[in-house]
Amino acid sequence: MIVSGNLQTKKTNNNKNNKTKKIVRKVKSAICEFHTSIYRVNGDCAYRVLANSFNAQSFKKGFLPNKIKLKEYANIIADMQSECFGEKDKETNIQRIIDLFDPNKMDEPASIIILSLGYYPTAKDYTEYVIGASAVLQLSAEGIIPSSDDSQYSSVSVSTSNEIKQPILNEVCKHYNITGSTKCKTKAPVRQVFNITEKYIVNKLMVENPKIDGAYLYVEKESDTKTDHVSDVLIKIYNKKGYVVYGNDEEYIYMKKELPSKKQ
Fold first, then answer.
1. Is 72 among the domain residues?
2. For a surface tag, which of 62, 93, 185, 214 has the fewest beta carbons within 10 Å of its beta carbon?
3. What is the CATH number for 67?
4. Which of 1, 3, 5, 2 is nearest to 172 (CA)?
């Protein structure tokens, strides 16, 4: 099962890779321009989905390349996740991220990458982002229904078929790629990630399969009582984005956002 936070693979291996370019200057506040795209993974590369194919022309592609090698993407995301999830073993995490898209390692591999990276006007390369966010999308019929139902969530409509693969958003992460305190005077990257993902689901996935009924995500419950507040904070954040809790079990809190089944 894939959960909000780190996706779990069947095995991991160490892998060497180059470091993401780190911006090392202190800036209190500046104008940032965000470049946001959806990528579909095929083999060892991810290919940008044309924005006009899912009515997302308002999202600027900018520096983001048309094709990213999966190993290069994993290196960037591993840097992000060292801050988001406290992943200290970068090389192991790089391989874990690569394995998420491998059908030989995952029963239902992830297939979509979402990137939103903010840049100062002086940037020359897509790795020179100031602040960024990322996520992955998995189509899965596994685990949509919690193992123990709770009647208090009965007002939320949820797919009950194990044959219909629903889109599950995971690995959501925000990362500052600059030293010192900085603020980008524009839309937050996580908001960009959620907005373009919902566009993709409504205008691409739901058109291809009308039985898809919204966007799903899971919040993993904390095993340490001292950090229980983390899942509470995440739920409040996702509530503001329109996601509603529809169930919970011993491990996860299940959330869904119902989306209109027509192009907007």
1. yes
2. 185
3. 3.40.630
4. 5
1, part of any domain = no
Q: Domain span at residue 50?
A: 33-258
The one-letter amino acid at 181: S
Total domains, the chain: 1
| Cβ atoms within 10 Å of 44's Cβ, excluding its own | 11
247 in Cβ contact with 149 (< 8 Å): yes
The overall average pLDDT reported for the chain is: 81
Q: Alpha carbon of 107 to those of 139, 152, 166, 203: distances in Å?
A: 11, 32, 15, 26
Alpha-carbon distance of 137 to 140, in angstroms, equals 9
Q: Are 107 and 79 in contact (CB under 8 A)?
A: no
Residue 221 lies in a domain: yes
Is residue 251's pLDDT more than 60? yes
Q: Is 13 a member of any domain? A: no
CA quadruple 95, 190, 57, 31: dihedral positive or negative? Answer: negative
- Under the banding of pLDDT at 50, 70 and 90, the label for residue 252 is confident
Can you give the pLDDT at residue 20?
52
pTM of the model: 0.82
CA distances from 154 to 215, 246, 248 (A): 17, 7, 12
pLDDT digits (tens, 9 = 90+) for 30-60: 678 899 999 999 999 999 999 999 999 999 9
- Rounded Cα gap, residues 182 and 176, in angstroms: 8
Beta bridge partners of 113: 39, 136
What is the reported pLDDT for 15?
40
Q: How far apart are CA 74 and CA 17, in angstroms?
A: 9
For residue 5, pLDDT over 70 is answered with no
